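Sequence in, structure out.
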Amino acid sequence: MEEKIRESTLLGKVVIKGSIYVVTGLRIGGPTTGLKIGGVDQPVISDAFGKPYIPGSSLKGKLRTLIERKERVPLNKKDKEGNSIGHECDDEEKYNKCAICKIWGILGTDKIKGVPVLTRLIARDVYLDETSITEEMKKNLELEWTEIKMETAIDRYKGTALEGSLRTIERVPAGARFSPMEIIYNVYEESDEEILIKVFEAMELLEHDYLGGMGSRGYGKVEFKDIEVFWNKKEDYESGDLNKTKINDNFTTPSEIVKNFEEIKKKLTADEK
């Protein structure tokens, strides 16, 4: 039987650029096989040069989790143990009405009943801007790019530290900046322009939540700044004239973009005509 193909035409790509600022110590865990110099129990993930970075998968996954909670979609995707791990539309009618599955994709399979579906959102890894770690900061860091925080568990009845619970946690210090950030949003149909706002709503939610681990302990507050949103039509890729049409004016934070989204969207749709 011939496989059904979902028809799609690329109308263009929205390119979102900017920076991620660390407001409180950020920890996205890395491999724990072996110890770094200094005996860190829980290291952060780092690139080939030993510098911390934000994986695109961590950023995209957190944005999806937060928007799923806001939209109150059913968390019907299960892991092997039967625990709910997220939302996934299981038929085409639901999918066509679901901004989350259209933007972030279908977990694991990228298909609905054998029919391939297209993910709109691509989140790149975001690397540390070395200049954001100042000489003054380096004087107070235990490692070249990161700080070490001592953590322990508390006996709630005695009010004392639990025996054997002391551990060392590596984290990116407050004041660090990850840049350039790049998020790509593919536009396949006109309705994709309407749901683009969900990306910026998710970014708003993340600013009031946390990225990485140990958020309930104060870790992982971040802010998105210096945002630039470009619209590249498919014809721009044919001419090589890219990232020339900026559509967000001077709105450079997620909240400003959400607040003025209708104005921004008009520029996007006007450029298509």
